């Protein structure tokens, strides 16, 4: 693997160090994650023309999220419903008021981007587990350090 040396302007270096400290990670790790996140955003700026029913919207984290065009239904929701809940494309179409073609495009998109979507699903489940554990312990209101999820 190629190694890169980065000379950051002083102000940016200070900001990186502050953000890394808040995340509890070394500045080098923070820079690596920031670059990886930016590359992922750039790779997904444009919709796949072969799947006209799929587009992107900006998620809560500011990252692009694949959704069924004209809806706010995430591709990962369709993937979960199919693979974890065992719902068929026909059942999903009826449940969400979509066409089977829209569902099938979502499933094709999931197949093409399975690693990143599975990572997003796992990150959400990890966050949900963390929050629920804090609520169950009665510590949710206290300041807590949330896990950083890329």
Topology:
Layout: H1 10-23, H2 27-43, E1 54-58, E2 64-68, H3 75-83, H4 89-96, H5 100-112, H6 114-137
Antiparallel strand pairs: 1-2
Helix pairs in contact: 1-2, 3-5, 4-5
Q: Could you characterize the architecture of this molecule?
A:
The structure is a single chain. The protein is mainly alpha-helical. It folds into two domains: 31 residues, no CATH class; 85 residues, Orthogonal Bundle (Arc Repressor Mutant, subunit A), CATH 1.10.10.10. Helices cover 57% and strands 7% of the residues. The chain has a two-stranded antiparallel sheet with strand order 1-2. Helix 3 packs across helix 5. It starts with 9 loop residues before the first helix and ends in a 13-residue tail after the last helix.
CATH topology type of the largest domain = Arc Repressor Mutant, subunit A
Oligomer: single chain
What is the mean pLDDT?
84
In terms of DSSP E residues, the strand content is 5-15%
Shape: globular
Organism: Planktothricoides sp. SpSt-374
InterPro entries: DUF433, Homeodomain-like_sf, WH-like_DNA-bd_sf
Protein name: DUF433 domain-containing protein
Pfam families: DUF433 (PF04255)
How would you briefly describe this protein structure?
The protein has helices spanning 10-23, 27-43, 75-83, 89-96, 100-112, 114-137, and strands at residues 54-58, 64-68. It has 150 residues and is mainly α.
């Amino acid at each position: 693997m190629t190694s890169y040396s980065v000379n950051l302007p002083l102000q940016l270096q200070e900001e990186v160090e502050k953000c890394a400290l808040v995340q509890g990670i070394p500045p080098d790790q923070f820079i690596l994650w920031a670059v990886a996140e930016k590359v992922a955003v750039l790779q997904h700026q444009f919709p796949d023309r072969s799947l006209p029913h799929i587009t992107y919207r900006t998620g809560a984290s500011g990252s692009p999220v694949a959704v069924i065009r004209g809806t706010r239904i995430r591709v990962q929701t369709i993937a979960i419903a199919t693979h974890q809940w065992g719902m068929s494309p026909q059942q999903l179409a009826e449940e969400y008021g979509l066409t089977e073609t829209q569902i099938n495009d979502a499933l094709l998109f999931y197949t093409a981007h399975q690693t990143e979507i599975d990572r997003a699903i796992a990150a959400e489940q990890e966050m949900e587990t963390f929050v629920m554990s804090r609520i169950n312990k009665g510590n949710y209101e206290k300041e807590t350090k949330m896990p950083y999820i890329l």
